[in-house]
Each structure stands twice: as structure tokens, then as C-alpha cells.
Amino acid sequence: MTEDEVKSLTALWRTRWGGAPIGCALSARHPDRWVRFHSLPDSKRYAETEQEYETILDRHHRVLAELGADEGVYVIAGYFADAPVQASAGPRTHAGAVPWLTIDPDEHPYVEIPLTLRVGTAPLRRTALDPLLRCVADDELGHVIISPLDLRWLYHPYDGGADVIAPSVRERDGLKSRHADWLPTPPSRL
Fold first, then answer.
1. CA–CA separation, 27 and 24 (whole Å)
2. Is residue 160 part of a domain?
3. Per DSSP, what are the bridge partners of residue 135?
4. Per the database record, which ranges form the DUF3885 domain (predicted)?
5. Which residue has the higher pLDDT, 32 or 83?
6. Among 63, 95, 101, 175, which has the minimal tally of Cβ within 10 Å of its Cβ?
7. Structural domain range at position 111
8. Do 81 and 46 form a contact (C-beta atoms < 8 A)?
């Protein structure tokens, strides 16, 4: 991403979403369009078999496909100051990711040490996103947000599921209806 693209993303984020791009804070800021899905049946948190990993990845990709992104997606991933990103980090990074923002602990209650957000673009394809989603599922990487280039929706995968901020209440309700068996029981608020 170029410096101009990063500046454009920053301006668009502030206009569309406001606040810091911290995935775990999105549901509180946008409760009317938020829905949470669990990654495995019976709200199981972590995969133990390859079949369970496939279920996790399939659920992520089904929701992402329904949300849609014509020209690819932004992938935003956070890295704490005490665990810098290294070139050998493999799937924890994404090709072309550049430093975007640093979140200071004094500015955000969910951050205890400085968090550097890196951003890059990727196609909305399994080959591009599966390594990253699998790291998230194994709790090896947090603070991930996936969004189309116009930021009309936000997808925050975490170990155990994903929070979605849909483009509208109607679209959120459609997702909830189509994937009712993936909703937390009882319904989750955070």
C-alpha cells in the first residue's frame, strides 16, 4: 500500500466508523448492526482435528462471501510492541502489509501495551485468508479486522468465532437468520 492509500484509509475509517480500529470494541460502538457467530458447533472454542479446522474456515468464508467484497479486502492485524512482526512470521503477516496506526494504552481501555496495526489488501479467497484465519483460530494472532475497500462492513475473527458489523440492520438480521445455529447460546452481548 502506498502512503496515499494509507492516508485515504485513515480518513475513510474516521468517517465511517470513528474511534480506534480495535475489533473487540466494535460491538459496543455499533450494537444495532452487530452479530456474533461461533466457529464450531456447541460453541466449542478451539479445533482439535483437521475436520474442525475446516468447519471454522468454512464458516468464516461463508459469512465473508455473503457480506461480499468486489475488489478485495483490507486485512488489519495488530501486533504488540513486545512482539514485533518479523519477516519469518509466515501467515501471521500478510503480503504488502504496512504499519498503519499505533494504539496507545492511555487512549484505549482494551490495550495494555502499545499496539501497532498493520494493513494490507488481499483477495477475498481462501488461499489468501486461510493462513491468517487459522492463526486467529489458534489464538496466535488477535486484533484482526477484515473489511471491503469501501469499509461498508467489518469482520472481526477471534479464537472461537467472529463479530460482524453488517452494512445495515436488515443485512445483520439476514445473516442471523441464515446462520441461527452458529449464534451463541444464550445470545452473547460481548
1. 7
2. yes
3. none
4. 26-184
5. 32
6. 95
7. 3-82+94-182
8. no
30 found inside a domain: yes
CA–centroid distance for 129 within its chain: 11
What are the cell numbers at 26?
A: 466494535
Question: With 90 as the cut, is the pLDDT of residue 66 above it?
Answer: yes
Q: How many domains does the chain have?
A: 1
pLDDT above 50 (res 148): yes
* 21 contacts 143 by C-beta, under 8 angstroms: no
Phi first, then psi, for residue 166 (nearest 5°) are: -75, 165
Q: Is residue 189 part of a domain?
A: no
Q: Which residue's C-alpha cell is 484465519?
A: 133
Q: Cβ–Cβ contacts within 10 Å for residue 119, how many? A: 24
Separation of alpha carbons 97 and 118, rounded Å: 6
Q: Residue 78: which of 106, 117, 26 has the closest Cα?
A: 117
Listed residue (18, 22, 20, 35) closest to 166, CA to CA? 35
| pTM of the shown model | 0.89
Q: Which of 105, 100, 179, 90 is nearest to 138 (CA)?
A: 90
